[in-house]
Amino acid sequence: QVRLVESGGGLVQAGDSLRLSCTASARTFSMAWFRQAPGKEREIVGEISWSGATTYYKPSLQGRFTVSRDDTKNTAYLQIHSLKPEDTAVYYCAAKVVNGGQYNYWGQGTQVTVSS
Predict the structure, then answer these.
(1) In this structure, are residues 21 and 8 in contact, taking their beta carbons and an 8 Å threshold?
(2) Distance between CA 90 and CA 34 in Å, rounded?
(3) What is the pLDDT of residues 36-90, one digit of tens each?
(4) Rounded to a whole number, what is the largest CA-CA distance in the chain?
(5) CA distance 51 to 84
(6) Could you write out the DSSP letters of every residue in 56-114?
(7) What distances in angstroms separate CA 32 from CA 6, 75, 81, one per listed residue?
(8) At residue 62, what are phi and psi to the nearest 5 degrees?
(9) Residue 97: what are its φ and ψ, rounded to 5°?
(10) Mean pLDDT of all residues belonging to the chain
C-alpha cells in the first residue's frame, strides 16, 4: 500500500506560477498528475516514470505544465506556469508501483483556484 500526500495548492492570480508536490510513502514506478474541474471529468495532466526517463503530457496542456520527480525523496512535482482561470481544479497525484496497468494509488487532492 502506498500513501500519497499532495501539497502546494491555493488561491493564485492569473499569470502566476505554482508548484505542487506529491510525496509517496514508498518507491513508485510511475507518478502522474490529474485534475478535475467543477462539472468536468477528471483528466490527466502529465506523468513521469521512474528516474524521469519518460514523460507524457496531455497535448492541449503541454508547454505550461512540467512534471518532475526526486526519487531520493519519493516526491513528484507539477510546475505550472502562466496560470489561467480555467486551470482552476482539484489536482490529484497518482502512482503505480509496476510498469503498465492503471494508476491504483491516489492522493486526496489539492485545490488550485486561479482568479482573473
Answers:
(1) yes
(2) 8
(3) 999 999 999 999 998 888 999 999 888 999 999 999 999 999 999 999 999 999 9
(4) 41
(5) 30
(6) EE-GGGBTTEEEEEETTTTEEEEEE-S--GGG-EEEEEEEESSSSS---EE---EEEEE
(7) 12, 11, 18
(8) -65, 135
(9) -100, -5
(10) 95
What's at 56, amino acid-wise? Y
**Type of residue numbered 15:** G
Chain mean position to CA 40: 17
Name which of 26, 20, 17 is nearest 109 in CA terms.
20
CA distance 102 to 104: 6
For cell 491555493, name the residue: 10
Per the CB < 8 A criterion, the answer to whether 55 and 17 are in contact is no
Nearest to 44 by CA among 24, 54, 59: 59
Q: Do residues 107 and 93 touch, judged by C-beta distance below 8 A?
A: yes
Nearest CA-CA partner of 44 in 78, 69, 10: 78
Q: Which of 25, 22, 29, 34 is nearest to 1 (CA)?
A: 25
Residue with C-alpha cell 498528475? 33
Task: From residue 114, give the alpha-carbon distance in Å to each of 10, 16, 58, 81, 84.
Answer: 8, 9, 20, 12, 6
Residue type present at position 73: K
